[in-house]
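Forum: Protein Structure Q&A
Topic: Joint prediction for protein chains with partners

I've read a bunch of threads here and the consensus seems to be that you should model interacting components together rather than docking separate models afterwards. I'd like to see that in practice. Below is the full input, 360 residues plus whatever partners are listed. Could one of the regulars post the assembled result?
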Amino acid sequence: MNEPVLVGIAQIVVAKAPERICCMGLGSCVAVFLYDPMGRIGGVVHALLPRAPRDAKVRGKYADTAVKALLDEMISKGARRDQLRAKLVGGAQMFPNLNIKVADIGKENVEEAKKALKGLGIRLAAEDTHGTRGRSATFDLENGRVSISTAFSDSHFI
Amino acid sequence: MKISDESKVLDIVGEFANIGAGNAATALASLLDIEVVNEVTSCNLLPLSKVANWLGGPDQVVAGVYTRLCGDLRGGVLVVLSRDSATNLIRHLTKEAPDLARLTEIQGSALREIGNICLCWYLVAVSKMIDSDLIPAPPDATVDLLGAVLDLPLADAGLKVDKVIAVHTVFKSFEKAFDGYFLLLPEEQMLDVILEKMGDGR
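Posted by a regular:
Agreed with the consensus. Here's the joint model:
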């Protein structure tokens, strides 16, 4: 099997089966996975912050604009909008004892991503979000399954 | 940020961090009663997506202690320790070997304290150099994938910018498995102060 394509912070990757796409070490970031099972096309965006400021240049960086940017990219690569389903991974609170403004930004990231999905009429099929542990998630475009592992536990699928 | 000459900026900030790390190494050495040396300080201007790779890859498991500077000058400081170092340091302080996957209350507190000591000595040294008070919030610690540990520091820094100045100083001991690094993510105003105070006569 080929090595999965990696998606770094603020990046968007769209690919087709038999490729795999991987987000490594998601903490408070949220990764949105979109899949078209007919075309076996999938895409991932790795968002760092919940809401884009008005002058934002990088759409993939903010959960609210990232979902639409990913959708546009998916459609331009041939995905059918009415087929799409979404999965969400991440949004953990990595430093729960830290008393600063952004300490639970993970929660906001997940909320904004959900709001954006809802606004675009995309069904949320599954999620593995919140908690205090980082996750690595690998997206198999053969079947749309997302394999999730953490630093200290075996992987599971959503 | 007034970056007229990027490499010069990186040189100045790198030297600044190097002196801070030297001071922290001295403090660690006396706490642990071993010889701690600083290796190299490197400084880079990186897009957010590249920071984890620059530090060795997002999927390695590390111990991270993070705080934010919350005075006039803002920025984030992260201390990253390798798994072995974290285990050794916690054992040194608590006299029992920790399971990093499930730190007890006291072990987590020991890890925070180790980070706190590193951070404070680092900050004492750098604040002297720029003649400004740097006030850290109480830090928090976790053991997890590096990518996940970096998310909050990068979210903090990334609120305003798409590229961050990251300063990385490795510290090591010859005697025991002990190594780690500091990552400083200064915000614009702090960067300006560093450049103003450190850049004189260059």
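The longest helix of chain A spans residues 105-119.
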